[in-house]
Design a protein that fits this description.
By secondary structure, the protein is α+β, with helices and mostly antiparallel strands. It is built from three helices and five strands.
Length: 112
C-alpha cells in the first residue's frame, strides 16, 4: 500500500495546485450559467404566470398603477431553476452570471 502512495505523493509535490483562489481571484462561470435572477419591471404586464410557475415561491408582483407593476424577487428562496425565465411571455426575467450571493441578512437578498 505504501509503495503505491509514495510515487503519487512525490509526483504531486512538483505539480501546480488544482484549487481556485476564489475570494481573491474571480471564478470563471460557464456559458448559460444560472446565477442571480434579474427582472426588468418596465416590461411586466402583471399576468402572474411566473408566480404560478415558481416552485420556490420566490416572486411577488406589486401593482404600482393601472398598468405598472413591480416584481419583488426573494433570492434567499430562489433555486435558480429559470422556470420564470422560460414561462414569461414578455421576457421580463434573465439570469445573471453572478454566483456569490451570500449575505448575513435576508433583507439584503430581497430585490425590488
Amino acid at each position: 500500500m505504501l509503495g503505491a502512495l509514495l510515487p503519487e505523493s512525490i509526483k504531486r509535490l512538483f505539480t501546480k495546485p488544482m484549487t481556485n483562489l476564489f475570494p481573491f481571484e474571480p471564478f470563471p462561470t460557464p456559458d448559460n450559467y444560472r446565477g442571480k435572477l434579474i427582472a426588468d419591471n418596465d416590461l411586466c404586464i402583471g399576468c402572474n404566470i411566473c408566480i404560478r410557475d415558481c416552485p420556490a415561491q420566490a416572486l411577488e408582483c406589486v401593482k404600482l398603477g393601472e398598468k405598472k407593476f413591480k416584481m419583488v424577487i426573494y433570492l434567499d428562496r430562489c433555486v435558480q431553476c429559470a422556470q420564470c425565465v422560460e414561462s414569461c411571455p414578455k421576457k421580463v426575467y434573465r439570469m445573471d452570471a453572478e454566483h456569490d450571493l451570500s449575505s448575513y441578512s435576508r433583507e439584503s437578498l430581497k430585490v425590488e
